[in-house]
């Protein structure tokens, strides 16, 4: 087999160098017949990569890890984690590799990371591979989250490998290349803490400060400031998920980033009929990570981060616990503020409207949506028509007409701004039935439905003729998503 020349790319090895104890040098598995399925050209250009080169043989080798630039040091990252509440001291990249770091146009360091690149020492008997469908799901959902303005890891490319992957059936394999501010996780800190190597824990925290929360470096207590910054970032992130009905599906501690970006979009979904108890993941048997439980799950994960950071907070454990508990108490007010602020924007409420008016408006609306199982996305978008004088598009979605009429009268009395509402309420989200339709077609070799869906959700706030089916909820019934492992 001929070997493609490597791209000339300045790929850093900062993580491998600075945190060698958490980095296992490794190589991606060979890819028999690489074929590009999806490429975010705008993201590639932002990273200083030539989209045309990425489409060629050297580019495909780069995107699958089989032809890395000279001097690159791909590694599988070590981390621990609580999975559905149960602690595993040694998880790590079981089917992934960190190729290295790139610097974007704004001078920010970005990880380039592969998923589905083959078995590693962390695979625990699994094959380390990925199928086309789940990798394209991550591509389309991360594109949507980014377009909504929600912090997320971003999919750069999906490359079909030409290898079959055994799941319930044989499926075509693929590798996802994704970009992140970093892949430092709560589980990374759990791993470092479990080693009892205080120097490693300190270096990991210093790396997190340098890459994500630099203002903590100037604080009186840098590690407490780091923890407070992560608490605040995660509070904002989960509030943003809730505002668009996003259900992550697997909020384990190894899936919570220190940066505050959404990561590991496996069995995720977008809620349609509003339901606090909605969940979709096949591996979440008890609904631990259901829609309405996401803030509590995040708070729980952050408590595990606090436990890992205790040695850096104080030599006196009681004092360290007191500091951590005090900082964690900031999660709920930060979440509540971000969530209420988001709903104020979604409802077009005027600045200065008293919380005593805004809060019951929001809570009463959500009670109506819950009782009537109203599609969140459609209702929020159509509500701007009501602000312009035509309530029927939104009103028609609610069975309890007396209830919604009374609510609409209270809301209209605040003078909502319809144009402002249209700027924050998407017309299009990755509707679950359309995602499945696109992934099934792509798995069978037809990329057109996937490419169309990516284009639509990439411009979510702009209503366009001919795209009506992308704005409509799917058929009623239980929807289930799968991790793809």
How would you describe this structure to a colleague?
- The protein has 485 residues and is an alpha+beta fold.
- Among the domains are: 14-180, no CATH class; 349-416, no CATH class.
- It is built from 19 helices and 11 strands.
- The chain has a 5-stranded antiparallel beta sheet with strand order 2-8-9-7-6, sandwiched between helices. It has a two-stranded antiparallel ribbon with strand order 1-3.
- Helix 6 (186-194) packs antiparallel against helix 7 and helix 8 runs parallel beside helix 10 (317-328).
- The radius of gyration is 23 Å and the shape is globular.
- The two termini are 29 Å apart.
- The model has no long low-confidence stretch (mean pLDDT 96).
Short description:
The chain has 485 residues and is α+β, with helices and mostly antiparallel strands.
Unreliable residue runs:
none
The oligomerization state is single chain
Query: What composes the largest sheet?
Result: 5 strands, antiparallel
Specify the number of helices: 19
3D shape: globular
N to C succession of SSEs = HEEHHHEEEEEHEEHHHEEHHHHHHHHHHH
Distance between termini?
29 Å
> Helices and strands: which structural class?
alpha+beta
Mean pLDDT: 96
CA radius of gyration is 23 Å
The largest beta-sheet arranges its strands as 2-8-9-7-6
Give a topology summary.
Blueprint: H1 14-18, E1 23-25, E2 35-39, H2 41-46, H3 51-54, H4 57-64, E3 75-77, E4 81-83, E5 86-88, E6 96-103, E7 109-115, H5 132-148, E8 154-166, E9 170-180, H6 186-194, H7 198-212, H8 222-244, E10 246-247, E11 269-270, H9 294-313, H10 317-328, H11 331-346, H12 355-372, H13 376-387, H14 392-395, H15 401-412, H16 418-424, H17 432-443, H18 448-457, H19 468-471
Antiparallel strand pairs: 1-3, 2-8, 4-5, 6-7, 7-9, 8-9, 10-11
Helix pairs in contact: 5-17, 5-18, 6-7, 6-9, 8-9, 8-10, 8-11, 9-10, 12-15, 13-16, 17-18
């Amino acid at each position: 087999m001929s070997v493609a020349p490597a791209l000339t790319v300045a790929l850093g090895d900062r993580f491998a160098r600075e945190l060698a104890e958490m980095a296992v040098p490794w190589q991606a598995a060979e890819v028999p017949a690489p074929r590009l399925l999806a490429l975010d050209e705008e993201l590639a250009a932002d990273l200083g990569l030539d989209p045309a080169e990425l489409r060629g043989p050297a580019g495909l080798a780069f995107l699958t890890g089989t032809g890395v630039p000279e001097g690159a040091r791909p590694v599988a990252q070590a981390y621990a984690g609580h999975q559905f509440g149960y602690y595993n001291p040694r998880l790590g990249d079981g089917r992934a590799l960190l190729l290295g770091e790139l610097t974007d146009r704004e001078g920010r360091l970005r990880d380039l990371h592969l998923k589905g690149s083959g078995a590693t020492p962390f695979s625990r008997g699994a094959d380390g591979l990925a199928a086309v469908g789940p990798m394209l799901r991550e591509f389309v959902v991360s594109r949507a989250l980014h377009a909504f303005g929600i912090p997320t890891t971003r999919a750069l490319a999906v490359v079909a490998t030409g290898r079959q992957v055994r799941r319930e059936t044989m499926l075509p394999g693929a590798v996802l290349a994704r970009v992140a501010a970093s892949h430092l996780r709560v589980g990374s800190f759990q791993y470092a803490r479990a080693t009892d190597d205080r120097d490693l824990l300190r270096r990991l925290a210093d790396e997190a400060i340098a890459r994500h929360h630099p203002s903590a470096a100037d604080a009186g207590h840098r590690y407490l400031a780091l923890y407070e910054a992560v608490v605040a970032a995660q509070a904002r992130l989960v509030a943003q998920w809730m505002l668009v009905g996003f259900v992550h599906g697997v909020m384990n501690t190894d899936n919570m980033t220190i940066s505050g970006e959404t990561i590991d979009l496996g069995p995720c979904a977008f809620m349609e009929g509003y339901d606090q108890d909605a969940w979709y993941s096949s591996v979440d048997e008890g609904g631990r990570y259901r829609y309405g439980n996401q803030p509590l799950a995040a708070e729980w994960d952050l408590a595990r981060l606090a436990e890992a950071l205790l040695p850096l907070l104080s030599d006196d454990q009681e004092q360290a616990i007191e500091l951590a508990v005090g900082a964690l108490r900031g999660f709920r007010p930060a979440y509540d503020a971000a969530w209420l602020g988001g709903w104020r924007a979604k409802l077009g409420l005027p600045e200065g409207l008293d919380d005593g008016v805004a809060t019951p408006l929001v809570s009463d609306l959500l009670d109506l949506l819950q009782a009537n199982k109203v599609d969140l996305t459609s209702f929020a978008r159509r509500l701007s028509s009501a602000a312009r004088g035509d309530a029927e598009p939104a009103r028609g979605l609610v069975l309890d007409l007396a209830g919604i009429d009374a609510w609409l009268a209270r809301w209209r009395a605040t003078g909502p701004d319809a144009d402002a509402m249209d700027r924050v309420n998407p017309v299009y989200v990755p509707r679950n039935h359309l995602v499945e339709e696109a992934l099934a077609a792509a798995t069978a070799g037809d990329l057109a439905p996937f490419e169309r869906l990516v284009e639509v959700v990439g411009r979510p706030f702009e209503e366009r003729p001919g795209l009506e089916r992308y704005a409509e909820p799917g058929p009623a019934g239980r929807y289930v998503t799968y991790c793809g492992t």
